[in-house]
Design a protein that fits this description.
Four Helix Bundle (Hemerythrin (Met), subunit A), disordered C terminus, 4 domains, Beta Polymerase, domain 2, about 950 residues, 16 strands, four-stranded mixed β-sheet, about 10% strand, globular
């Protein structure tokens, strides 16, 4: 242990505690086995543990030492176990003449064996016996365990003799790892020393290969379960990639193979340099500080660093806010840089192992391991790389012929990745180490070198595996040094629930998605993007824009505008001409436009399409923007892109296309309406002619302009069926598998609160509305079509789910059940959502549509929000023509196209202000059900 007397002073006074416990026993008999005495002993132990842990927490908050905290908690636990053992030995089950079999050693194993404990860690113990169990040993063990359990500790334990430990360690890798870290606590110390000697001699010797392979396989499986990226924004600090368990695995392997007892000894062995050892200790100390704070804060062994605790831990660790970055974002950036260091240390150790194995694999018995780590080992294959002096393919991996290859030509720091990508091979560990040690060569001169930039652009736009190559460039530090603007976003986390990865990981993943689209993989998810990417005039502007689209995150200004400015500076350096540079800058500046408009605007409103076409200006830009948008959303995280978003993007693309191709001349409105009526009449050829003529006159002009032909036909059949049966209420539920939504159509007598009732029914049944379209007929009916997120894989199950919603709507309209009460934000927010604060904002736009006022409402998402908003809009005497719901993690943007009761836009400034106030209050769950103010009624 590396604690000084000063570090542990005041945590627990074991001698004073022993004396206190002895005072509870009978002075005459010295017996502490009765229940009354036991209760006193337990209370004294509880107080000592509580006071000790409080002192440890206080010191953690004062000095921030993570390892010190873990060591102090381990020391506290050791002392408690020693006191309990001594009390049991001397006052409960004392024997005057113990036999050779009545010996017991209490040994810490696992993480506790390393001398580290988190506040919520298990206490793993091995009760070591010389031979078989005796009644005395059983009593001592039972007393210790019950005391620890009564203290509220979770204890992992085993009672074994030395022979059992050796035998089980040979067959069970988990037990072998536990015994590897065995540490003596109390009892018979020679017994413990005998175990260590037998373990090294009978288990460890000659089995390094098997152990290392098993631990690396175990690590890979753990990464697969936790998520293969170390840049997940809610990481598991113990089990996740780049977490404490990875450091543990490194030390297990080093301890087992190099026969060391501490990390410092790895420097003497030449495995780690002094600076690498310091990185190891700093990484471990930081991760332990985070873990201990997390356990103390949550009061449980929580290992996931979730949003709701990140900010509090950031403050405890002393992080402050900087321009463009919150305190929590600076903390998490440090976390991810540490996780990256852990990955670097893993590669360094594996390289050291491999070098040693290669020198004498036959003697060490590690041939199998070397072949697994080093494909082709034993075949002696070393092949020069054509056209690349200084590089060879050695046993299936790229290596150098001389350690001066980068000194001789710094452009080789880019060339190495171009070669690896072209040949589809990995870098040799020695190469990786040499690259890291050569990063100082990447300076202004290299960044301006045309050849270096050509090589980088070749990697970026590769048709092979650009994502894999760029990630390797990032992990070695080359990418952030060669493109300093990228270096600024390395390990940067955005504190929101929308993005699943750090900014640099998102950018690299987006390149991977782009390459996937270009190869035609996963075309079922984005068929239009797959089709369009093959028709591009210039694919490299797309890849450069994709790489740079979030490059300005973390700055005080809008990252799209700042990113465009960076692109204009950096693209000429990459070798792009003026026109290409402007296209890249335009794509970055507008990279959010298509997604925003598709998800939050009425795509049947021609002004929306016309305005968007004026921004885009050309078909080539439209293609580029669609592909970039699809890749960007897909790279945000699993499940973020879905069929519904894809359908909205395709609709916007196809609506905008005629405006840009010149193949569209504005057809007169009357002609468009007449054509739509004739088209539907042709589809209804099985209806009597008079019924067809009567039906087409039931719809206003807006209906014919914005409703798709297939939906017009479905509405006609539903309405005729209702007319025939005399029903004034009808429903239709249609699942859409590809779009991942279910369409629910409601036919009912027109009512200003109809959409609110529908939203309330969805809220009650847990359905999530993503879009809504409202139409009215000339004879006083409304056709409300809502789209809800699909939840069930089978169409029939999803249809039944939709029917449950319609049953609630029907009962509400009939007065058989009431609507739910408004849901306040405070009541609705749970778990991670409480960590976020999004100020409500209500914008009133009269320029977005020729016919409607558009209300754009943003705020913190919560259950029942849409219901509360639609209720408020109804009280404001507004008619809703369509509603569009977009959710970006914790932030929601709801857009409503509305008119007053006379069908006019809301032009009165006073009424607009009332609308803003009412809807901002509704976002917080305060729904004012009183009639609209007089100024509002006058305006209507």
């Amino acid at each position: 242990m590396r604690l000084t007397q000063e570090d542990i002073a005041g945590i627990i006074d074991a001698d004073a505690l022993r004396k206190e416990l002895t005072g509870f026993t009978s002075a005459a008999e010295g017996d502490g086995s009765d229940a009354k005495t036991r209760a006193k002993v337990l209370n004294a132990l509880k107080k000592a543990m509580k006071d000790g842990r409080a002192e440890v927490r206080k010191r953690l908050e004062a000095d921030g030492g993570g390892l010190k905290c873990a060591w102090r908690l381990s020391f506290l636990q050791d002392e408690l176990i020693r006191v309990i053992y001594d009390f049991a030995f001397y006052h409960v089950y004392r024997i005057k003449n113990p036999s050779a079999a009545e010996r017991l050693s209490v040994v810490a194993v696992g993480g506790y064996g390393r001398g580290t404990l988190a506040p919520g860690s298990d206490v793993d113990l091995l009760f070591l016996l010389p031979y078989k169990q005796t009644p005395w040993g059983e009593q001592i063990v039972e007393y210790i365990l019950y005391m620890l359990w009564d203290l509220g500790l979770k204890v992992g334990h085993a009672t074994r003799n030395i022979e059992e430990c050796v035998r089980l360690s040979r067959s069970d890798m988990t037990i072998r790892t536990a015994v590897l870290e065995a540490r003596y606590i109390w009892g018979d110390e020679p017994l413990y020393e005998e175990l260590v000697e037998r373990f090294c001699k009978d288990v460890v010797a000659g089995t390094s290969s098997d152990f290392i392979a098993a631990k690396l396989k175990e690590r890979d499986e753990r990464h697969r379960r936790q998520g293969t990226s170390r840049y997940l924004v809610e990481p598991n600090i113990k089990e996740g990639k780049g977490g404490l368990r990875d450091l543990n695995t490194l030390f297990w392997i080093a301890k087992y193979h190099f026969q060391v007892r501490s990390q410092a000894e790895l420097v003497k062995k030449g495995v780690l340099s002094r600076s690498e050892y310091q990185r190891f200790m700093k990484s471990e100390d930081f991760l332990w500080a985070v873990r201990c704070h997390l356990h103390f804060l949550t009061g449980r062994p929580e290992e996931r660093l979730s949003f709701d605790v990140q900010r509090e831990i950031a403050i405890l660790l002393g992080y402050t806010q900087h321009p463009g970055m919150k305190d929590v974002e600076r903390f998490m950036k440090h976390y991810f840089l540490v996780a990256k260091d852990v990955g670097d240390l893993t590669r360094i150790l594996c390289a050291a192992l491999e070098e040693e194995h290669v020198k004498d694999a036959r003697e060490t018995g590690l041939t199998g391991l070397v072949r697994r780590l080093r494909p082709g080992f034993g075949n002696g294959r070393v092949k020069p790389v054509d056209g690349a002096t200084g590089f060879v393919v050695e046993n299936g991996r790229l290596n150098v012929t001389s350690d001066t290859v980068f000194e001789n030509d710094p452009a080789n720091l880019l060339r190495v990745f171009q070669i690896a990508d072209k040949l589809g091979i990995n870098l040799h560990p020695h190469m990786t180490k040499l690259i890291r040690r050569s990063l100082r060569l990447i300076d202004g001169t290299l960044r301006s070198d045309p050849e270096a930039n050509r090589l980088f652009l070749t990697v970026l736009t590769s048709r092979h595996t650009p994502e894999k190559t760029l990630r390797k460039m990032n992990e070695t530090g080359v990418l952030g040094r060669f493109v300093p603007e990228f270096g600024k976003v390395v390990a940067m986390m955005q504190f929101n629930m929308y993005h699943h990865y750090t900014v640099d990981e998102h950018l690299i993943r987006s390149i991977g998605v782009l390459a996937e689209i270009e190869r035609g993989d996963g075309g079922d998810d984005h068929p239009l993007a797959t089709e369009l990417i093959r028709t591009l005039q210039n694919r490299r502007v797309l890849y450069v824009a994709m790489f740079l689209h979030d490059i300005a995150k973390g700055r005080p200004e809008d990252h799209s505008i700042a990113g465009a400015r960076i692109a204009r500076k950096i693209c000429p350096r990459f070798g792009l001409n003026g026109a290409e540079t402007e296209t890249v800058a335009w794509l970055i500046e507008h990279h959010l436009d298509m997604s925003t408009i598709a998800q939050s605007r009425d795509l049947s409103d021609q002004k929306t399409i016309t305005d968007f076409a004026h921004v885009v200006q050309s078909m080539e830009r439209l293609k580029l923007l669609l592909i970039l948008t699809v890749a960007d959303i897909r790279a945000v995280g699993p499940g973020v892109f879905n069929g519904w978003k894809g359908q909205l993007l395709r609709t916007l693309y196809y609506e905008c296309e005629p405006h840009l191709t010149g193949g569209h001349t504005k057809v007169p409105r009357r002609q468009t309406i007449e054509h739509a009526k004739q088209e539907l009449a042709g589809q209804l050829h099985h209806w009597p002619e008079d019924k067809r003529e009567e039906y087409v006159d039931r719809h206003y002009a807006a209906y014919w302009l914005r409703v798709a032909p297939d939906r017009r036909l479905a509405h006609a059949e539903m309405i005729r069926k209702a007319d025939t049966s005399g029903d004034r209420l009808a429903f239709e539920v249609t699942p859409h598998e590809f779009e991942a939504v279910t369409e629910v159509t409601v036919l009912a007598p027109d009512h200003p609160r109809l959409l609110s009732i529908v939203a309330g029914a969805c809220h009650i049944t847990g359905a999530n509305i993503v879009d809504a379209q409202i139409d009215t007929t000339t004879d006083g009916f409304a056709i409300d079509t809502i789209f809800i997120s699909r939840e069930l894989p089978d169409d029939s199950d999803e249809r039944r789910r939709g029917q449950r919603i319609t049953e609630v709507i029907e009962k509400t309209l009939a007065g058989e059940t009431g609507q739910p009460e408004p849901v306040s934000k405070k009541t609705a927010l749970k778990g991670r959502m409480k960590a976020f604060k999004v100020e409500p904002e209500v914008l009133v736009h009269n320029s977005w549509s020729d016919e409607y006022t558009v209300l754009e409402i943003s705020g913190l998402d919560r259950p029942g929000l849409l219901y509360d908003l639609t209720r408020s809009i109804a009280t404001l005497n507004l008619n809703i023509a369509s509603a569009h719901i977009s959710t970006f993690g914790e932030r929601v943007v709801d857009v409503f196209y509305v008119t007053d009761l006379t069908g006019q836009k809301i032009a009165n400034i006073g009424r607009q202000e009332i609308i803003r106030e009412r809807l901002a209050a509704a976002v917080d769950g305060y729904v004012d059900m009183s009639p609209a103010a007089p100024v509002a009624r006058q305006a209507s």
